[in-house]
Design a protein that fits this description.
- Helix 1 crosses helix 2, helix 1 packs antiparallel against helix 13 and helix 5 runs antiparallel to helix 6.
- The protein has one domain: Alpha/alpha barrel (Mitochondrial carrier fold).
- With 309 residues, the chain is mainly α.
- Helix content is 73%, strand content 0%.
- The radius of gyration is 20 Å and the shape is globular.
Length: 309
């Protein structure tokens, strides 16, 4: 990450009108807009997956799990919608700087311009240890909703984790790497390339603008993204919503739990929250790229007004 302090990293690129550092800031800004906009859907999806088991630890049907999630949102709509938002917003820095830093940094170091698939691979692996603790805290905050109707306090979570030398904060890192890899490949690399293709093929023949092609490309990428990541997301939920005070759940045990769910409920057991996930992905990707493109435009105009290109 030392390239962040390289003078050339802050020089305006004459081709796109922004510096690599400003490009990173645009990615972070887009991520912040996305985080606020999709938080209610994120919270609801986690609860649907989390309530796959009842209080006795017995797997329940997807329909029953959705009813439980609906009950939580009806009882505390504001609290449920905002749950986990504070660590997620903090995660825009704690998670996104390493992820976008490695993604854009790799592209900058090898001189490939727009981030490619090699950059996505590097970012997904190297950023996972930074991202996982934030995702763990975010999920832990929602574990008490069913019982208390309020989110679990941040300091309480950290206190419980500190008693075990903060090791619980790294539960679920392995499935996260796979999730992050799919996110980077499809959302950060694939979606912009698809949008450019749609603009090229349809833009000259239709009245579709940037926002419309952004939404269209997100709608194409999102189902693929969710099919790939939903099983991994479920593994994360199983491993990260277990009590910190209790013993951890290994990847193998989490896979076995998913296998038992599939044996009982078929493919619906594996893809709990899939429909919600597709809707969330479309909203998230569109908000992220719209925010990123808007902020990039503002910075480019500022640089142009300052005579930097």
């Amino acid at each position: 990450m030392s390239f962040l302090f390289d003078a050339s990293y802050h020089q305006v690129n004459k081709k796109n009108g922004v510096s690599p550092f400003q490009n990173l800031c645009a990615y972070l800004g887009g991520s912040a807009i996305q985080t606020v906009g999709d938080n209610p859907v994120t919270a609801y999806r986690q609860l649907v997956q989390q309530f796959a088991k009842n209080a006795q630890g017995v797997a329940v049907s997807p329909k029953e799990a959705m009813s439980e999630a609906n009950a939580v949102f009806k009882a505390s709509p504001v609290n449920a919608s905002l749950s986990g938002l504070v660590p997620r917003m903090g995660g825009v820095l704690l998670k996104r700087i390493p992820k976008f830093g490695f993604l854009l940094g790799y592209s900058y170091v090898v001189g490939e311009g727009e981030p490619g698939f090699a950059a996505a691979t590097a970012a997904s692996i190297l950023s996972a240890p930074f991202i996982n603790p934030v995702r763990m805290v975010e999920k832990q905050q929602r574990t008490a909703f069913k019982i208390t109707g309020t989110e679990k306090r941040l300091m309480e979570i950290l206190k419980e984790a500190s008693a075990k030398n903060f090791a619980p904060l790294f539960r679920g890192t392995i499935p996260l790497m796979g999730h992050s890899f799919a996110s980077a490949m499809l959302g950060l690399v694939g979606q912009p390339r698809l949008q450019k293709y749609i603009q090229k093929e349809l833009g000259s023949n239709t009245s579709l603008g940037g926002t419309a092609t952004n939404l269209a490309s997100s709608a194409v990428v999102s189902p693929i993204y969710v099919v790939v990541t939903n099983p991994l997301s479920r593994l994360e939920v199983i491993m990260q919503t277990n009590s910190i005070k209790g013993s951890s759940i290994s990847v193998v045990d989490a896979v076995k739990e998913k296998g038992a769910d599939m044996a009982k409920f078929g493919m619906r057991g594996i893809f709990r929250g899939q429909g919600i996930g597709i809707g969330k992905a479309i909203v998230s990707l569109t908000l992220f790229h719209e925010g990123r493109i808007y902020i990039t435009g503002v910075l480019r105009d500022r640089n142009k007004a300052g005579g930097l290109f």
